Amino acid sequence: MEQDESVAVCYRHPDRETGISCTRCERPICPECMITASVGFQCPECVRTGAGTGQHPRASQPRTLAGGSVAADARLVTKVLLALNVALFIAVQTAGDRLTADLVMIGQWPHDSFYLPTEGVAEGQWYRLLTSAFLHQEIWHIGMNMLGLWFLGPPLEAALGRARFLALYLLSALGGSALTYLIADPAAPSLGASGAIFGLFGATAVLMRRLQYDMRPILVLLVVNLVFTFTWSDIAWEAHIGGLAFGAVIAYALVHAPRERRALVQYGTCGAALLVIVAVCVLRTLALTG
């Protein structure tokens, strides 16, 4: 009987079909052969050779599940992002509301003496789409967001690699801000890292699906957060939904890109996401100022 080449089989046991691959060399492995690693599973050869000189050509160049370089500190970018959020929070507490007014996401100048008539994304201050994602005023607000970042960030950073994880985080933040700018009240200020955090939620769900993990814990946590999103007053739900959508789409491209066209698919998806954000902002600006 001929073997169906469309079905992956364990490279050590050709009679066993499998949907799991070694996260280092990407060869298919069955449950008997897979060995739990910090992220996903590895085959016996990659575990035996460690970071060194195995027989397989890819084993000598360890890569993350998404093709990124394996770093010694898989939390470095997470730590830097957390530090930036905390530093800006301290700056806001020190400098007062004027700094918040300069960095918060606001579509167009509201009729309030606290803002100048030339402020807002519609007036060309597009940097607010990103600076607002690092801005917090209340201790509970930054506490919840940074807890989410510390919980979700390291596993994603280890699985994607530093550069891909950073791209995921920033594009999720911008996606949340863009949706807020598109449909929310342009005179309502919005701030916080929640859009980026929801992007990490979406990416975590995609990653767990890719690794065939039990998705119930992350789905329950996501549902709980969505309930808070739509029931708690003064929450910019647009940022949460925008970040979630962008994070899930980008993560899917990062972890499911075929090895032969990995860079094209990954860079192309991130570039397309950025173009969508720019297009949304241009159209909304024309609608507000035209």
From TrEMBL:
Domain Peptidase S54 rhomboid: 124-255
GO terms of molecular function: peptidase activity
Keywords: Hydrolase, Membrane, Protease, Transmembrane, Transmembrane helix
Ranges annotated as spanning the membrane: 165-184, 190-208, 215-233, 239-257, 264-287
The keyword Oxidoreductase is annotated on this UniProt entry: no
GO BP annotation list: proteolysis
Record's subcellular location: Membrane
Topological category with respect to the lipid bilayer: Multi-pass membrane protein
Superkingdom of origin: Bacteria
InterPro entries: Peptidase_S54_rhomboid_dom, Rhomboid-like_sf, Rhomboid_protease_S54
Family membership: Belongs to the peptidase S54 family.
Protein name stated in the entry: Rhomboid family intramembrane serine protease
Organism: Streptomyces gossypii
